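Async update (no meeting this week)

Hi team, since we skipped the sync, here's where things stand on the single-chain job. The sequence we agreed to prioritize is pasted below, unchanged from the tracker. I ran it this morning and attached the output directly underneath so nobody has to dig for it. Comments welcome in thread, and please keep replies under the output.
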Amino acid sequence: MKQVLLSLGLSLFSISLLAQDAALVLFSENGEMFTVLLNGEKQNEAPMSRVRCVDLNQEFYQVKIDFDDALLLDFNANFAVDQGMETTAIVKQNKKGKFVLRMFGSSPLSNVSVEPVAEYVPLEPSAEVNVIEEATEDVSTGTVIKISETGSDISQGGIDIEMNVPGFDLKIKMDIPDEDLEMNSSYSEEISSSSSIDSRMSLPAEDEVTQQPIAVPGYNGPTGCDWPAEDTDIDKAIESIEGKSFEDSKMTLAKQIAKNKCLTADQVMKVMMTFDFEASKLDFAKYAYDFTYDQGNYYVVNDAFGFELSMDELNDYLESR
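Output:
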């Protein structure tokens, strides 16, 4: 029973770590008042010059900026956000005087405090109450897990599990009566054994919670970012880019993806193929170089160009850096 309770507690803890949404902050460069709609849902009741959208659980959103000033032209844009991050974007006019949405910055969301409780009404306890308490600490992560057991016997008591993790405050209280459980010497020895407690209460390894992307096999040259994104993620992003009708909107979304997702040279080439104009392909190739994992393989992006002049200009740009 105790092992089942610990497994339930650790499962709740793992879920709480993964269930982090994203936030998006939009503000106007010159103080224009506007209303934000994400995927058609209004985010602020009254027009504001700065709007914070929270609890975002998708990666890509269609953003509509509805200006309060009737003389200003409303516009739509696709925008990407990262889970667990607060992304900031600016509403501004481009060189042609058209309002656009541009990435401004991002930062991790503040740590949240989660306190899931699974509580059952126990049988009425006797006057005599005993407390058995053990704690263990993972020095590598700073995690402290404490288990307490109360009652004159197990059938009248309860089990409290408390896990203190840096950045989180997680407490689980379980008062579960079970007339079939009896306190005996072998059960007491199991509770007091630190090695047994450690084996049952160890937190999942980091690679069990988040899957790390895989680096380019066999590549050991210069890198522009830590780890490349999965091809499946980039394929979804490319579908979103291809869904845009205007070249300017495609470029905005493509640069957002490059900045927030570490790409491979091959993935950069695939994104370039979504553009209709040679100048757009060249512009993106120059921008994406800093966000490419295998920079030594960047020659593969030349396959996306239709003219050798573009290849020469990109090569001159890279050599001048």
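Quick observations from my side:
The CA atoms of residues 3 and 200 lie 7 Å apart.
The longest helix spans residues 2-18.
Reply here if anything looks off.
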